[in-house]
TrEMBL record:
It is a multi-pass membrane protein. Residues 1-10 have a biased composition (Basic residues). It is found in: Membrane. The chain crosses the membrane at residues 85-102, 114-136, 171-190, 202-226, 238-259, 271-287. One of its GO terms (biological process) is intracellular zinc ion homeostasis. Keywords: Membrane, Metal-binding, Transmembrane, Transmembrane helix, Zinc. The keyword Transmembrane applies. This is HlyIII-domain-containing protein. InterPro entries: AdipoR/HlyIII-related. The lineage of its organism: Eukaryota, Fungi, Dikarya, Basidiomycota, Agaricomycotina. GO terms for molecular function: metal ion binding; signaling receptor activity.
Amino acid sequence: MAVQKLKNRKAAQSQRSAKSHDVTAAASSRYSKRKTLTWDELEDWQKDNEYIITGYRPLQHNWKGCLTSVIAYLHNETVNIHSHLWASAFFLYSLFTVYPTYIHHHDHTSWVDVVILGVFLLSATLCLAASAFYHTSCCHSKEVRKLHGFIFRELILPESSQLQVSTRCHAFDYSGIIVLIVGSFFPSIYYGFWCQPSFQVLYLGAMMVAGLGLSMHVAGAAYLVLDPEYAKPTHRGARTSVFIALGLGAIVPTTHMFMVHDFNELVTEMGVNWLLASGALYIIGALL
């Protein structure tokens, strides 16, 4: 009797195990057939914004899957990818056509004008391309997110802090934003202080130090937003504050110009109307 009971118990356990396996397999198959997942179906390390609850791409574990998702179906990164990708292509086109189209026809332009405008257009191209790359590849795998932290881990963090680096994918996105903010000031400051080269150097140098963190003792914006600690959702407000503060750096040179020129001159020589518009867009984008 005891032997028979033991056999019956093992048979029941085997049946329950098989049923559980079938349920798991069915669930896995169901998820694999779906194009997108919900917030609750993500792994913990994938979760960033709890207010976006649907439209997540499953982990692809290959670049073909990431690239296919760009055009094959809609998800919550579709608009982000295409808006940045095509804008990047536009600025890249402008980078190669700005000289023959605009600069070449003016008698008093030089190679410096080409460099100044090229810095702005290149920074816009890099920023948008980096963002498109991030939004495309963030569904690849956990390992790829680690790879995206390579620049910060190997080049910026002290060796003693390397063990604190966590998985992250925003490094390219954040660094691109900083590059664009700094690069977009080049034309305005250069032309606004055309007759005052010392102030050109002063303000452009200050923006580069603030943006790229070149100072030995003062952590710049790049250091702060690329620190893995600031990649956490809990520090979203801190990242926003850094971007806004960097964008508001234009207030100092603009105020300087207001003190020595009238508004019409600022519009003509510095493009201050576009500078103010870009500052407002930076703030709105950071808040979003």
